[in-house]
């Protein structure tokens, strides 16, 4: 208890003085350090502020540059898209021309086949593999070749249209992405330190998605542009080819059509000439037949006219053969009567030309029938060539599409 009530130790005045001085020195030192820290902090703040402002300014410039790059490529893509769309529309008109030209080939080919089929109905000697037939076969081959060529070209055109549309799709998708990217960068460019909706984003630095390098970004759009340009050039070349094909095929078909028509006209003229000659021969045969019929009638009359004298002479001879006894004399009368009978009989026999004349008449009749049949053959040929075929071919027109 006595210890608890013991007074605290007393310090010496010098110790008190030293303690005060130490407090002052410590305080001054702390104050100095604090002032240095404040000065360093202000310097650091100024430095950070300047660095931040510089970095933010640089980022703003980069964003602006990026926006310019996007705008540049967007314009490039827009130009190519406009070109490929226009080229596809023009190519579609060429496709329509091909389709019309292909459709127009069907009628001439059908008519050529009908002409060949009709000409099989020619008869007799007129069923000949003539120039008309040869040119009709060639015309059918030309038309079939043109149809095959146009069909291949149409397939090629459809494929080129598909490729153009594929290039257009790639451009549109790229443009869509460019538009979105530009909208985002426009938004980023509009942000300032005082923009109300700025916020902390914890995952901002986390890399999400498949980032590509700037070079890959440029290469991607450049490839789309180059592909579109390539397809556009291919389309231009194809249009030139289609123009050439349509012009050449139309020329070939017109040329062959005219060749066939000339062959038809020549053949019709030949058949008409042959028919006219046959008709002339027929008229001549008919005239000769009439003359021969008159000749036969005259021969028959001449023979009939001799029947009276023969009967008289033979009746006289028969009567004189009944003379009695010595009166049955071979006198000059008997001799002359006998001579008369022989003479008339001989003259009648000399007119055996009647049989020959009748034979000739039959031959003329056969010749007339043969000529009439041949004329009918020629008429049938003329009907087929001039009426059926040539009139049918007049409806054919070869147009440039």
UniProtKB/TrEMBL annotation:
It holds the Pfam family Tektin. Its main location: cytoplasm. GO terms for biological process: cilium assembly; cilium movement involved in cell motility. Residues 347-381 form a coiled coil. GO terms for cellular component: axoneme; microtubule cytoskeleton; nucleus. It is found in: Cytoplasm, Cytoskeleton, Cilium axoneme; Cytoplasm, Cytoskeleton, Flagellum axoneme. Keywords: Cell projection, Cilium, Coiled coil, Cytoplasm, Cytoskeleton, Flagellum. The keyword Glycosyltransferase does not apply. Belongs to the tektin family. Microtubule inner protein component of sperm flagellar doublet microtubules. Microtubule inner protein (MIP) part of the dynein-decorated doublet microtubules (DMTs) in cilia and flagellar axoneme. Forms filamentous polymers in the walls of ciliary and flagellar microtubules. This is Tektin.
């Amino acid at each position: 208890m006595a210890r608890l009530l013991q007074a605290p130790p007393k310090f010496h005045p010098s110790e008190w003085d030293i303690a005060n001085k130490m407090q002052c020195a410590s305080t001054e030192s702390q104050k100095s350090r604090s002032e240095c820290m404040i000065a360093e902090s202000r310097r650091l703040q100024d430095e950070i502020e300047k660095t931040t402002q510089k970095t933010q300014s640089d980022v703003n410039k980069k964003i602006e540059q990026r926006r310019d790059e996007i705008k540049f490529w967007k314009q490039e893509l827009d130009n190519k898209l406009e070109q490929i769309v226009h080229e596809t529309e023009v190519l579609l008109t060429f496709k329509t021309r091909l389709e019309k030209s292909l459709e127009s080939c069907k009628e001439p080919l059908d008519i050529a086949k009908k002409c060949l089929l009709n000409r099989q109905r020619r008869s007799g000697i007129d069923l000949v593999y003539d120039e008309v037939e040869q040119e009709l076969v060639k015309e059918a081959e030309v038309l079939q070749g043109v149809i095959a060529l146009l069909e291949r070209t149409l397939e090629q055109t459809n494929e080129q249209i598909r490729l153009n549309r594929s290039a257009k799709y790639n451009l549109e998708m790229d443009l869509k992405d460019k538009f979105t990217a530009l909208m985002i960068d426009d938004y980023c460019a509009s942000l300032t330190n005082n923009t109300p909706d700025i916020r902390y984003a914890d995952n901002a630095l986390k890399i999400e998605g498949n980032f590509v390098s700037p070079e890959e970004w440029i290469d991607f759009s450049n490839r789309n542009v180059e592909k579109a340009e390539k397809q556009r050039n291919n389309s231009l070349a194809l249009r030139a080819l289609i123009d050439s094909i349509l012009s050449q095929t139309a020329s070939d078909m017109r040329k062959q059509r005219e060749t066939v028509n000339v062959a038809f006209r020549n053949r019709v003229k030949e058949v008409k000439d042959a028919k006219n000659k046959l008709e002339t021969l027929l008229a001549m045969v008919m005239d000769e037949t009439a003359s021969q019929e008159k000749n036969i009638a005259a021969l028959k009359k001449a023979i009939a006219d001799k029947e009276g004298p023969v009967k008289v002479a033979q009746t006289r001879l028969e009567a004189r053969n009944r003379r009695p006894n010595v009166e049955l004399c071979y006198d000059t009368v008997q001799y002359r009567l006998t001579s008369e009978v022989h003479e008339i009989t001989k003259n009648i026999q000399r007119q055996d030309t009647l049989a020959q004349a009748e034979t000739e008449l039959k031959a003329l009749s056969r010749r007339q029938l043969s000529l009439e049949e041949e004329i009918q053959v020629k008429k049938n040929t003329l009907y087929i060539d001039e009426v059926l075929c040539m009139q049918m071919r007049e409806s054919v027109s070869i147009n440039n599409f």
